[in-house]
Amino acid sequence: MTESTVAPGPREIFERLRRHLLENLGGFGSELAEDAVIEVPFAPPGRAKRHEGKEAFLLFSGPEQAAFARRFALDEIRNVVVHETADPEVIVVEYELAGRVLATGRQASSPFIGVLRVRDGKIVNWREYQNTLAMIEIMGQSERA
């Protein structure tokens, strides 16, 4: 990056994340700093609540995202509200993932809140609050159908 180039901020990086998710349900590793920390405080029992480092997160998330994509088609990321904070590196984002359970065609959605910290154009921290039990129930219903 040259001196005249401005690194993308958290709002732009979130928009990139949206595109990655909608295009291939993941694939956003290029947006992560090598030492990124990804946190999911409400992860279901038996799942990690914290991933330290880009490589560790990608090793975990790759198979998870592939399994999810075989069962759920993400159609849109809607109801997006971005809250700026006093820290220019940080935004708080409310959004909802909406799509279809592939086995049943059932429409399903789940709300999320993310706290995104971007430094030098890369995600250094992503804390995602989601209703993981609702997602497990949605996906569990697809397996019972």
3D architecture notes:
The structure is a single chain. The protein is an alpha+beta fold and about 140 residues long. The chain has a single domain, classed as Nuclear Transport Factor 2, Chain: A, CATH 3.10.450. The protein has 3 helices and 6 strands. A hairpin with a 5-residue loop joins strand 4 and strand 5. The relative contact order is 0.20.
Summarize the structure.
The chain contains three helices and six strands. The chain has 145 residues and is an alpha+beta fold.
Structural descriptors:
Nuclear Transport Factor 2, Chain: A; globular; alpha+beta; 3 helices; 6-stranded mixed beta sheet; 145 residues
List the SSEs and their pairings.
Blueprint: H1 10-24, E1 32-39, E2 50-52, H2 54-71, E3 72-84, E4 90-101, E5 107-119, E6 122-130, H3 132-144
Parallel strand pairs: 1-6
Antiparallel strand pairs: 1-2, 3-4, 4-5, 5-6
SS-based structural class?
A: alpha+beta
Number of helices: 3
Determine Rg (CA atoms, Å): 16 Å
The tally of beta strands, per DSSP, is: 6
Order of helices and strands: HEEHEEEEH
